[in-house]
Amino acid sequence: MVDFELSQGEREFKKKAETFVRNHITPHALELDVRNEFPREVVQKAYEEGLMNLHVPKSIAGQGRTLLEETLVGEALGYGCAGCATTIMCNNLALAPLLLGASEQQLTKYVKPLVTADEVKLASFWAPSLNSSLGAFD
Fold first, then answer.
1. CATH number reported for the structural domain that contains residue 114 in this entry
2. Is residue 111 part of a domain?
3. What secondary structure letter does DSSP report for 132?
4. 8, 18, 11: which is closest to 49 by C-alpha?
5. Going by C-beta distance under 8 Å and a sequence separation of 6 or more, which residues neighbour residue 137?
């Protein structure tokens, strides 16, 4: 028989995320939406609490969390505020191509600084065709 119960560690990590949402997202979500403001303090606190970049391997200073643990955090964050959840979890999307195909040297250069810095750093996609009209590489 398959056991679908969360492990003790998974339950604790889920509770940590839920507590974070109650303390740092829910009280500020409406105000952030009304002011159309980037949730800088919330994102920094999520980073400090270890709720970002969850799937980055331990070999490059990441947490090496499982997809299930990442999903539990995403669910908790989404309950508190979809905008904050998207901001916090979006690094995962931008880092995925690097984690899947980058060399160790590239991982060290581009990913490790995102998980070891004192202040949160956000990853993003870059589209050369969109930026070429701006004269970025002329």
1. 1.10.540.10
2. yes
3. G
4. 18
5. 128, 131
